[in-house]
Structures are given as structure tokens and as C-alpha cells.
Design a protein that fits this description.
alpha/beta; 189 residues; Rossmann fold; 26% helix
């Protein structure tokens, strides 16, 4: 039975190079992430995609007084997953930030993800994706809070400011998360 899940956090066009709110070095992420996803599927573990899915008037947008440019508006090309990533019918997809006033940083915030993972008897998660200092951090912190064993996949995360990565990983380690490369984590499945 599936006991592990790979959570792919917000690897969407608007967060990648050329997008409205691009993190650093993102074009190097989709292909190795896809290879990891394929290995996770071969190990019969679960894949979870989180997607920012904002209304056009989201409170985080500068046009609404927030800190960010308009990004990942529901149903727009910027909200699509970066190729070659593709959702399969046996994957879980959760949409974050759907309410105008919710930050939506965590894949667990108002999504029901905790219940869905417990239903699948998942006890450990690998966390990958964008952006390390925001949505990856919040998703990992919530996964710890909900009792999951958490490993942040250090080679499959990207930050808006690459210099923030070590500080975030140190913070998550202190909170109880593990860090490993995707190859190291895959060996545990």
C-alpha cells in the first residue's frame, strides 16, 4: 500500500523563467522533476500537485494592494504546469489561494490535502517545487504540523532569491524536516 507521496509545489508557468513571478533557475527544474515523478510512480507512491489558482482580484496582487504582480489566475496559461509535467488521473491536484483573502502559500491551506493523504495512509512526504522561501516552506511546515515525516528534496526546489535557500532549509530542519536529494529520497521508497 502507498505510504509515501511526492508533493510538487506550484511548478507553474508564472513561477518559471519568463513568467509573471519567476523564481531563479527554474528552467533547470522540470526535466529532473519529471524523472523523479516517473521513479515515484514506479515505486507505487502518490503524486500530489499543488497549483496557485487565484481569482483575478486576489489580495496578494499589487493591483489589490498586495506585494506580488498578478500571477496564476485560475484557468490562464500562467497557471498551467510547466512542461513536461502532466497530471495523470491517479494523481492528486489541489488548488491554493482560491479565495481572494487567503494567502494560499501552503498546499494544505483550505485544500483538504491533509485528509486526502491520511485517507491514502500516507505517512511521509517528499517536498519539491517553487518557491522555496514561500510555498515550499509553508507546505513543508504544515506537513510537519499534521504529523507527516517530511523530506525536502534539495535539488528539486527553486527560490525567488536563491540566497534564501540555506536559511529556509535550516529553519525546516530545526522544525523536524529532513533534507535529501531526490536520488537519496527515492532509495527510501
Amino acid at each position: 500500500m502507498v505510504k509515501a507521496a511526492l508533493i510538487v509545489v506550484d511548478v507553474q508557468r508564472d513561477f518559471c523563467e519568463g513568467g509573471a513571478l519567476a523564481a531563479a533557475d527554474t528552467l533547470s527544474l522540470p526535466q529532473p522533476l519529471q524523472e523523479c515523478i516517473e521513479a515515484v510512480r514506479r515505486a507505487d507512491a502518490l503524486i500530489v500537485y499543488t497549483k496557485d489558482w487565484h481569482p483575478a482580484n486576489h489580495s496578494s496582487f499589487q493591483s489589490s494592494g498586495g506585494p506580488w504582480p498578478v500571477h496564476c489566475v485560475a484557468g490562464t496559461p500562467g497557471a498551467e504546469l510547466m512542461p513536461p509535467l502532466q497530471v495523470r488521473t491517479d494523481d492528486i491536484v489541489v488548488h491554493t489561494g482560491m479565495q481572494a483573502q487567503s494567502a494560499g502559500y501552503s498546499g494544505f491551506e483550505l485544500t483538504g490535502l491533509e485528509d486526502r493523504l491520511h485517507k491514502w495512509q500516507i505517512d511521509r512526504v517528499g517536498i519539491s517545487g517553487i518557491a522555496t522561501e514561500y510555498c515550499v516552506r509553508a507546505t513543508a511546515a504544515d506537513a510537519l504540523r499534521y504529523g507527516f515525516q517530511v523530506t525536502v528534496l534539495t535539488d528539486l526546489i527553486r527560490a525567488i532569491r536563491a540566497g534564501d535557500t540555506s536559511k529556509v532549509l535550516e529553519e525546516l530542519n530545526k522544525a523536524g524536516a529532513n533534507t535529501a536529494t531526490a536520488t537519496e529520497w527515492l532509495k527510501t521508497l
